Amino acid sequence: MTAPIPKRTVGNYFRIVAIEDNTEVRIAGSSSLILAKAGDWNQITLPSSSYKSINATKPVCIAQFVLGLTVISDSTDASMLIIPPYELFNSKYTFATAEYSHPEYFRYEYQVMLVIDSTKKDGLLLDENPLPKTTK
């Protein structure tokens, strides 16, 4: 499942890499594609506001690339995220953040993107407490 990057106004691109030969990839709302050989890849661009389910008949690696300040007008650094399959989701996570910010240049702003089945949202906890009902 892909999710929008907070405060982004342009799309991101996703690279889907086949782990095995003859892998069929289905992206919600699009036609399927075949990656014939292990290592073959396809790149797609999605709008910044879209959520998409990506399914494959065999294992794939999906990387999300966030364009940086030199490419677009958003004031963000370029980055890459690996989108894990839901089978690898865990029930507990620990987040570590850098402590240093330089007041003359900028202050770090931390954000967490969570993807969860909507039927399990009420069981989502932060520091052992339920999230506010206003959480999207």
UniProtKB/TrEMBL annotation:
Pfam families: IgGFc_binding. Residues 4-129 form the IgGFc-binding protein N-terminal domain. This is IgGFc-binding protein N-terminal domain-containing protein. It comes from Mytilus galloprovincialis (Mediterranean mussel). The lineage of its organism: Eukaryota, Metazoa, Spiralia, Lophotrochozoa, Mollusca.
